[in-house]
Amino acid sequence: MMRVLVVSAEAGHHPALAEMIGRFGHQVTVAHSGEQALQQAATALPDIVLLDVELPGMDGYETAPRLKSQADGIHLPIIFMTHLNDEQTLLRCLSVGGDDFLATPIEPIMLQAKLRSHFRLRELSRTLVEKNRSLAWHSARVQREHDIVEHILQNALSRNFLDYEHLQTYLSPATSFNGDLCLSASGPLGNLYVFMGDFTGHGLAPATGALPLSQAFFTMVERGVSVAEMAAEFNHRLAQLLPDDMFCAAFIAELSASGERLTYWNGGMPDALVLDQQQRLSKRLPASHMALGILADDDFDSRVTNLRLSAGMSLVLYTDGLIELHNSQQQSLSEQGLIDLLAAQPSLDIDRVVSAIEAFRGDTPQRDDVSLAILRCCATGIKEREPEYEHQGLPFQLQVDLTAAELRELDPVADVVQSLGQFRGIRDHRTTLYLLLAEAYNNALEHGILGLDSSLKEQHEGFERYYQLRQQRLATLEQAEISFQIRYLPQQACLHMNIRNSGSSWSPSVSARQQLATREYGRGLELMERLCDELALSDNGRCLSLVYSLNS
Q1: Rounded Cα–Cα distance for residues 6 and 2 (Å)
Q2: N or C: which end of the chain has fewer CB within 10 A?
Q3: pLDDT tens per residue across span 439-494
Q4: Could you tell me if residue 133 is inside a domain?
Q5: Does residue 145 form part of some domain?
Q6: Whole-angstrom Cα distance, residue 124 to residue 74?
Q7: Do 372 and 404 share a domain, yes or no?
């Protein structure tokens, strides 16, 4: 049943019309003037209006648009009733909001057909308005939830050290929320940590992964943990939290306070670029690990790479969204295109670089999140924090003995450093201790146990061949042993560390060590000598002894 408002000044007309409409099964309300029609419409809420053109006072032309304005956004069909059939009258009826005409005298069949037709339009309009209101409510609710998440993310990232003077960043999300993440924080030893991550997809879902990861990052930086420990902890958390179809490609780096050493872990990210002072490519830092959140703890590889840096070098990090940007000719920027673009700049100014990137992209839509970070590798200038605790008062000794089976499956250094980090006065030194013990362990394993020669790395594709041999020999290893013996002497506030292996002798001469230090490989002993107070090789190179002062 529809509600019909009849507006007619002819006393003999509207009773018959009302009776006719009533026989169709509809509810009828009658008004005799335009003013009365507006009042009746406000209370009766008609579905259709039958309106005379000629009315006392406010005529049909003036009444029609005012009736429409009272309809609360829902289409209100107005059918003009007129005995006039000239073209100007009909056009004017349409121009003021009329939807149809009925010529008087009115034919019942014609009236019923028009009422049904216009009522269907009215119902369609009502449905559309209700759905639009529902969508508007849901949209407002989603926006409110987005605002809450954005507020939480901003608070979570409030400790982000992206305003560090030697770090420039550019992050451009494809949607409201960024699936890329760039974090930076200063460590307790004047060192700088940088994290760049790229979660699967873009938008709100991957952005929520930034919450647990950023909290873990800032907490671990505060404690001065190693890059390897960070990678393992991030992987553990994300593997527990993320669904199976989500992961986070990540690059984690630690720049020493002097700016001369970079320790990094690359899991699934594009090659990081090390540039010289002229913005020319000096070295690529490729991914050698799976992304975070995929592997179980036992399968995850947290081993890091150490790189010695020269004066004036810069580290460039970016997500795949950058090199996959397309221009109007559907050409992607590509890694080589980025290298050429950086080399063409007069300086590594982020604004200049971004302008060049935008010039390449033109008006082509951005399909993925885009992130870029440029870190100038120099002395950080970050003040070293005072130790939070006094040194451990009691002496202790830690002994770890690894057999061939454990050497094949485990990376023990992170566990050893984690154990040491439980003691007062040592936890702030975990990054340096990890570097020392990782280099010592790798020397013992690769040169002592596996008999690998670092000079292999000097050949074409030598690094790849070297690590292939490492994996092959490690897989077939049957009898071998590496032991860690670490003693803490509270009076001297130092650690005495012996790393012994059961392999063949290996003891490079001083001249050989100096020669190795000038190459892209073989810098492990030199690095250890710079980090510790004393270093000595004995038993034909099978035993490496280190002394590390906790006051340094």
Answers
A1: 13
A2: N
A3: 899 889 988 999 888 777 666 666 677 778 888 898 899 899 999 999 998 888 89
A4: no
A5: no
A6: 9
A7: no
